[in-house]
Design brief:
By secondary structure, the chain is of the alpha/beta class. A seven-stranded mixed β-sheet has the order 3-2-1-4-5-7-6, sandwiched between helices. The chain is globular and about 45 Å long. The protein is built from seven helices and seven strands, in the order αβαβαβαβαβαβαβ.
């Protein structure tokens, strides 16, 4: 019975990951680079690669699992630590077309700082796919000059809480 529950849970996670990746596919069919924050074993990038075979997926995670994910080729670059670490953030500044902050993972010590760091590593015009349990996410992203590309009703209806949305980082002003 426990084995069956584990298999069903893995199938649910895979379906959820594919649904999230498809939401980006509609908006940006071929991103060059994608950072998965809190990637762990990089199950999300492994699933998303099926839809984005030419995208370079990188992962950041505070555990050594990200290094094992790199060895298993589920991510191309692995960064061990928190995205809020200034060394990581400065090295990755404006490098990614897409950044994912999925909340099925270990919560960040400071979610607001993590959100700010995610926007720092996102290129102007890049997409941020984020999940959060709080409703103040929109306020936080508004204050960072992000445009809400979609809060897909279909995505919300198909997946249980937490709240999911996609925002686009503002283009640089001339």
């Amino acid at each position: 019975m426990n084995s069956l529950r584990t298999r069903v849970s893995a199938l649910d996670e895979r379906r959820r990951h594919r649904t999230l990746a498809r939401a980006i596919l509609r908006l940006l069919p071929e991103p060059e680079s994608w950072l998965d924050v809190g990637t762990g074993d990089a199950r999300f990038p492994a699933c998303a690669k099926e839809l984005f075979p030419y995208t370079s997926f990188d992962g950041v995670d505070p555990t050594p699992r990200v290094v094992r994910a790199r060895a298993a080729e589920r991510v191309e670059e692995a960064y061990a630590g928190h995205l809020t670490d200034p060394h990581i953030t400065s090295a990755l500044h404006a490098r990614y077309d897409v950044v994912t902050l999925l909340r099925d993972r270990t919560p960040a010590p400071d979610p607001a700082a993590e959100l700010h760091a995610a926007l720092t590593v996102l290129r102007p015009g890049g997409l941020l796919l984020v999940e959060a349990g709080s409703d103040d996410l929109r306020t936080q992203l508004d204050s960072q000059d992000c445009e809400f590309v979609t809060e897909p009703r279909a995505l919300q209806d198909r997946l249980p809480p937490p709240r999911r949305l996609i925002a686009r980082k503002a283009q640089r002003k001339a």
